[in-house]
Design brief:
By secondary structure, the chain is mainly beta. It is 6% helix and 36% strand. The N terminus is likely disordered.
């Protein structure tokens, strides 16, 4: 059975990559549109000869996310207003936290799950970078792609999040002041997708957003802007790849990125712009702090920038472009630099070609005066043993020289390779599958060495690994010689697309994660199942041993034994186009009945073993084929009633449409009516008691068009956006046994009591991160939400909507000290006594660490064997509910 699963997963994985052979831009003006990118990809992938090629998975991830962030013309707008909303939301939450109680606490994944994929190394989430404390070997910091900055003080045993209150939590670099380690600078952005959509429509950086450089002076307790941050007046978001601090004069800084290179001489207060071209990397001479090398790049997809290496001998005041013979355009895109610590005159530069593969190695033995080029005859950036073209070098690339041996260096890409002869030959160190034995996760973004501990670290799409020795291996050995330790336990940083839960007391959860397969919680522990990018899923409401999961583009699997094994589900769609995240829903009335949405709706009556189509939607606007279903729902009050949302396709001038059937699919009616048809429909929800009441949520950036409701089966729709900000709405759900609906957005959760016209923000306690999905388990009185970068969170369901539930204010209940060694006190106001309170404590990843009862208005509690980290104290009683956060040091 596992071989069957593996074969289909490997087919799906063969579609992956970051090279974009389908993008061809010869325009000297470098002006592109999002619609034209979509058209080029559609045309390219429609050819059978391209379907098994690698090199486009990361593009589709980016395109899927971008599709939620378009304007009504199908283009990605300037991010100014969006970032302003994010910033205002974060500020408002921070001020409200002083007097309002929190609702949410994490539920996992709380450890690296056991691996049941059978073929791939599993992980927890993408880590972009790492920085070490200058004097404490066990203290270091990591930057997460979507989950912020995390700190460990015990060499990775536990982790503490430091940036949950920032407006966005995308991190590309961390720099620590070596003279005062409480001063830390961070690049608040995700630089990894820089090759996609840059300069669309001539508007610089409008497809990526960041906040520039932020700073803390108290070790991460609070953060503030520097002078190099997003400026609302110029409409540009700062994307910074690298920050360097002068080790002796720590007020001096250099930062480089998309917009060029800037320096500061006053600890980031003000900055001076020095160079204009796009920069991908920057390194400092370990023997002479004034000497800096910077690598610029050329982005083929947009035909911008120039590849080269620059040098400064006065810490960035002036720069010289070195004569390297690296082609500035047409051949080399990205360059990664590394200096040999044992011989600072020796510089290595790994160059990436136009397909994301290994162009070659440039090496200087005289501090950049002259350079030699070599190519070993193998492509160390490709997926396997080096004999194929392509790779993901624009997305994942790392380079590290051995601290003592100048001729030994390591290169990270999809896999890891090494050379012991200065680049003449290369040997493998890891492979992204388990075919050659235990390994590290694919897609390596950073390789680093900690001189205080002597350990090597690899940051990748699966998390962070360490080892005390990197040993080169061979494809013939059958196993790898380097022993890596995954130290991601406690890093709650998974990026989830969708989640589902059981409807009984077993508390099962399944969630689809970006690049880390699907995570399944069986009520006691987590495991990784299926593989690929985890997507939509469900747990049967009738038998929680029946579990459905999927990988990208509707590759579905079912399990009949609670997730111990999975079977590939063949759905005869005749190669219909389908969404990156293909929706699947159960019939809540008939056991075994499921529906999946491709271009048409397919039905199974045996939990996914056999499928038949129940729709035949006509092509739209003169097209020869129809387009993807983005969302659909089956009425609980009438299984024959199904609502279907067809996504808008701007690039083909095809509007979004809503269809409905009342007879199980024999006849469908277009009920789009007065709905906006120029926005992406993200979710449909039907009232469980009345099939004529339904809701549609929308992504995109069109003011006042976010949520619509019908009370007459779609004859017309009422706009219930009311006071919502202009942000994408990712999901809408009707709250069980309540006259309220809840939405998941890019800035948290909102609830609408349908007797009112005001959406209430219910995000207090959640990190400032995208919320992607919502699920209920009424049997456990739980609501679960998945986030894109901070795992899964939960709250008591009745605390959201029951007016009898009183949430404490900050003055009614006091927990102290907030920073402690595992022992803390709780005091409540006398007017609330006498009262019995249940006290539960969860660590940052959702593991319950303590349970007790508070019997008086002041009591003391102790978490046994508490390790350093963030903990959440859940306080509940009769009609009372509160979540408090503490830090154990």
């Amino acid at each position: 059975m596992m071989k069957t699963i593996l074969s289909f997963i490997l087919i799906a994985i063969n579609f992956c990559g970051s090279a974009q052979p389908f993008i061809n831009n010869s325009s000297k003006k470098n002006i592109y549109s999002f619609k034209s990118l979509q058209q080029q990809f559609d045309q390219w992938i429609s050819k059978d000869s391209n379907k098994n090629k690698k090199g486009w998975k990361n593009y589709k991830r980016w395109q899927s996310d971008a599709g939620y962030h378009l304007n009504s013309f199908g283009e990605i707008p300037d991010p100014t207003d969006y970032i302003k909303i994010l910033t205002e939301h974060a500020s408002r939450k921070n001020s409200e936290s002083a007097y309002k109680s929190s609702l949410w606490y994490p539920v996992g994944p709380n450890v690296i799950p056991s691996n049941q994929t059978g073929y791939m190394e599993n992980g927890i989430g993408r880590i972009n970078c790492i920085a070490f404390h200058p004097t404490q070997a066990s203290t270091y910091f990591v930057g997460v792609a979507q989950g912020g900055v995390w700190k460990t003080v015990n060499d990775g045993q536990t982790w503490i999040p430091l940036t949950d209150e920032l407006p966005i939590t995308r991190i590309s670099d961390i720099a620590i002041d070596p003279l005062n380690p409480d001063v830390i600078y961070i690049s608040v952005c995700d630089f990894a997708y820089i090759g996609f959509g840059l300069h669309l429509n001539g508007r610089k950086r409008n497809t990526h957003y960041g906040l520039g450089v932020y700073k803390t002076t108290n070790g991460g307790q609070t953060w503030s802007e520097t002078g190099l941050t997003f400026n609302l007046t110029d409409g540009e978001a700062s994307l910074i790849k690298k920050i360097i601090i002068h080790p002796d004069q720590t007020n001096k800084l250099i930062a480089c990125g998309v917009n060029g290179l800037d320096i500061s001489t006053d600890a980031g207060l003000t900055w001076t712009h020095k160079l204009d071209t796009l920069f991908w990397d920057m390194v400092q001479d370990p023997a002479n702090s004034e000497i800096i090398y910077a690598a610029s790049g050329w982005v083929k997809a947009m035909n911008i920038g120039n590849a080269g290496i620059y040098k400064s001998t006065n810490f960035g005041q002036t720069w010289t472009q070195l004569v390297t013979n690296i082609p500035e355009t047409g051949f080399v895109q990205r360059i990664k630099l590394a200096i040999a610590p044992s011989d600072p005159a020796l510089i290595y530069a790994v160059a990436i070609d136009t397909l994301g593969g290994f162009y070659g190695l440039y090496k200087s033995e005289n501090s950049g005066s002259t350079w030699q080029f070599s190519y070993p005859g193998i492509n160390i950036m490709e997926w396997d043993e080096g004999f194929n073209e392509g790779g993901q070098g624009n997305y994942d690339l790392a380079l590290l020289v051995h601290p003592q041996d100048k001729n030994t260096f390591y290169v990270g890409g999809i896999n890891m390779w090494g050379s012991v002869d200065g680049g003449t030959s290369y040997q493998p160190i890891s492979h992204w599958t388990l075919n050659y034995g235990p390994t590290i996760h694919a897609d390596i973004h950073s390789l680093n060495y900690n001189p205080l501990s002597g350990n090597f670290f690899a940051c990748c799409d699966g998390g962070i690994y360490k080892t005390n020795q990197i040993i080169l291996g061979s494809w013939d050995d059958g196993y790898w010689l380097t022993e890596w330790q995954n130290i991601g336990n406690g890093l709650a940083v998974s990026s989830f697309y969708r989640l589902s839960s059981s409807k009984n007391n077993n508390g099962k959860i399944i969630a689809g994660a970006q690049d880390n397969a699907s995570f399944l919680f069986d009520g006691a522990s987590w495991k990784t199942v299926i593989g690929g990018d985890g997507m939509d899923n469900l747990i049967s409401p009738f038998d929680d041993n029946v579990i459905i999961g999927s990988a990208q583009y509707g590759t579905f699997y079912n399990s009949f034994d609670g997730g111990d094994s999975f079977n590939y589900m063949y759905i005869p769609t005749n190669n219909e186009v389908t969404e990156w995240t293909t929706p699947i829903v159960p019939d809540l009335n008939i056991p075994g009945t499921l529906y999946a949405g491709f271009s048409n709706v397919y039905k199974s009556e045996d939990d996914g073993v056999n499928w038949t189509p129940v729709s035949s939607f006509p092509p739209a606007n003169g097209q020869t084929s129809d387009f993807e279903i983005s969302a659909f729902a089956v009425a609980e009050s009438n299984s024959n009633c199904i609502y279907v949302a067809k996504r808008v396709k701007y690039e083909y001038n095809v509007p979004g449409r809503i269809f409905k059937t009342l007879n199980g699919g024999s006849l469908w009616a277009d009920i789009t009516s007065n709905l906006p048809s120029d926005l992406y429909y993200t979710s449909i929800e039907i009232d469980p008691l009345n099939e004529n009441i339904a809701y549609v949520s929308m992504a995109g950036f069109t003011e006042e068009n976010k949520v619509f409701k019908t009370t007459n089966g779609g004859q017309n729709w009422e706009n219930i956006t009311f006071n919502l900000s202009n942000i994408p709405i990712n999901c809408i759900k009707k709250i069980p046994a309540a006259n309220s609906v809840i939405i998941a957005t890019d800035i948290g959760l909102y609830i609408l009591d349908e007797n009112t016209n005001i959406w209430l923000n219910k995000s207090l306690g959640l990190p400032n991160v995208i919320v992607s999905d919502i699920e209920f388990n009424s049997s456990l009185n739980q609501i679960y939400v998945s986030t894109f970068g901070r795992g899964i969170w939960a709250a008591n369901l009745d605390a959201l909507v029951d007016e009898k539930i009183i949430q404490f204010s900050g003055k009614q209940i006091v927990l102290y000290p907030n920073i402690n060694s595992g022992t803390f006190n709780i005091s409540i106001q006398e007017e609330l006594s006498p009262i019995l309170l249940n006290i539960e404590v969860f660590d940052v990843s959702g593991k319950k660490c303590f349970s007790g009862i508070m019997k008086s208005n002041t009591d003391r509690f102790q978490i046994e064997n508490a390790k350093s980290g963030v903990y959440y104290v859940k306080i509940t009683g009769k009609n009372l509910y509160e979540i408090k956060k503490i830090i154990v040091e």
